[in-house]
Structures
1.
Amino acid sequence: MTCFREKRKKSHFMIVPLPAQGHLIPMSDMGFLLAKRGVQVSLVITRANADRIRPIIEHAKESNISFEVVELSFPNEKFGLPAGCESIDHITDMGLFRGFFDALYSLNKPLETFIESLERPPDCMITDMCNAWTAPVARKFGIPRVIFQGPSCFYISTDYNLVQHKVYDKVINENEYVTVPDFPIKLQVTKAQTPGFLNNPGFEDFRKKCLEEEMTADGMVINSFLELEWPFIENYKRLMGKKVWTVGPFCLYNKDDEMKMGRGNKEAVDKSHSVLKWLDGRNAASVLYINFGSIAVTRPQQLMEIGSGLEASNRPFIWVMKKKEITPVVEKWLADGFEERTKDRGLIIVGWAPQMVILSHPAVGGFMTHCGWNLLLEAITMGVPTITWPRFADQFVNENLVVDVLGIGVSLGEKEPNIGIDDVIKVKSDDIRKAVDALMDGGIQADERRQRSKDFSEKAKKAVEEGGSSYVNLTDFIHYFTEARSELVLAHGQ
Ligand code: UDP
């Protein structure tokens, strides 16, 4: 274990993310934010994850904020994992999932060793919803523990209600629609679309622990903001009967250009400059950006079908493909004409894209995405309307929020989960073209959708400004745990 830190004088919050890009990124953002608000922050991550964001860590050090990274070594070998497999997106074989979680859950001892090395335990531990292993550690040292919930309140209260009311116990056909009980609106989902996190065979023990430890937490902190989904935030607070702080959107805290470029993976820094140059030459709101996040895989047949849809739409686009998606078939298809035919208006990025650099550019006018909560919220924050194509986890319910409740998305109509195993076409090129036209064309509906997106963007920015809802919530959050420490000190006369 390596640890860089200075002597502690202020409130000290420890952050323990799940090693997955969609969790690590917002939790690191939150760490920077807390540090900027005067808290001393320790971000506990494994070495390979720290390496991905090394330039940002260095940048934070230079910025004179109290932000330290505590690097734990991940016991890959002991749990049969390949070297360097330290994040969910590193897992290439589903058979390794269990070993990955076993390895993660064995980090309790190194974390205890780190806490023992401190003058006094941190004032608060912010830990991911999937990190139930941190709860006994927090209890051992008397540290208040807050759960970071990755998705929207819209999703987490849906999930909570489905579990509490045992709705799926009565379901025989997993594609049958059921109504979510005790919810502010009529929402219908299928079990296949919304099974709940870690609800897979072989993961029963992890899921049980996570659900139990959620109930023992001192509160929840969420990457969302009041003006976006207040009825669902209120509903979630009522259901949990605990403190719930919505303090997002976290992506807005990353104002520095270098931090934006290297967000999530240092490999995006170099790409940022050429992407910016390419975007600078385009008309306002003319470019469609396509990115399906860090985990969802698009298989060759579907990938080439997307290409046909983009060609037919005849619009400028930036399309992000994962390295593992570039199979020999795809490579040949790209070289055999697609790249040539679209060279004047298409930019393909292979690997990690500088998402915030792209979304915040005025030339970007639409975003096709799998509806991961972070990407969606980033698009909302930047005022970019979306084409939605959910694959799994919280994504179908997120689509519902964006398309049916907020009115800022066009759905591609996918109803069944797809974890990227079968090489089949689920969405046809013509449906892609139609959705792109609907989103990017003028016309009353498209204009209204774009206007609503801009309105939410304004509200997001106001929420994090001094006096805004998320700003005020964050102040309350910091005070709540700082005062808890003072009471503890008084009680123990330290
Ligand atoms: N991301 C990025 N570049 C990429 C892919 C993803 O910066 O090429 C970031 C994205 O901005 C978001 C996170 O990775 O912050 C993905 O989180 P999300 O929950 O949206 O999706 P997931 O990857 O977990 O499916």
2.
Amino acid sequence: KLTSREFHPQDTIVDVDGVKIGGGEFVTMAGPCSIEGLDQIRECARIAKAGGAKILRGGAFKPRTSPYAFQGLEEEGLKYIRQAADELGMKVITEVMDEGHIDMVAEYSDILQIGARNMQNFKLLSAVGKTGKPIGLKRGISGTIDEWLNAAEYIAVQNNSNVIFIERGIRTYETATRNTFDLSAVPLMKKLSHFPIIVDPSHGVGIWDLVPPMARAGVASGADGMIVEIHPDPANAWSDGPQSLNEKTYMRMMQEVHIMEKAM
Ligand code: PEP
Ligand code: MN
């Protein structure tokens, strides 16, 4: 298989317009769960960059459990995140949920994020694969390692070797954390595949004060980077406030992550 380590023994480095994922440096993508407005995403970008993140995250199309919850600012949000990132020389990652929106999202974003709920949306995987853009492929909510690898294969078979795996926790019988953060997936995926893998401790645990220790553990696991949710005012975030870090906590976590990275 194209995704397998057997087929391609060397690590694949995904070049996101100059920012290399899988090249030895631990790359951080930080930003809010949802883009809420231009001022909010600019403030998030300022914080993200101050901590050392090179890539700005933020959702404009949100896969919400309830149809009554905020669904995202859509194209308006995409414009805001692109502007905020460009002002600070950052790259953008944002989710695409629908085949019909791929061209629009690709116009504004450097990485197309496939959300956990769409890991096995095979038509969407093929279609994003065809863009040739870097694809951040989240692990499905109940996705097995084999299913995740096969999802990447749908992208790779479209001649796209820019897959970035994102471990974001899986559903288990445990309910005390939002998901069960499966860090063993990092060394396992590295053994099975040549594509880089980053961790998402925010969705992995769902509780803000557990995020920094799991981010440090992510570095220790050998991950190529992380994606983490931050917000200037987590208590008033429009989505995922309970797992979002405020500026102070984020900055402290990033110091610790840099120390961990040097020790590796
Ligand atoms: C997100 O990144 O905000 C998100 C919706 O993540 P996931 O698809 O992992 O639930
Ligand atoms: Mn979120």
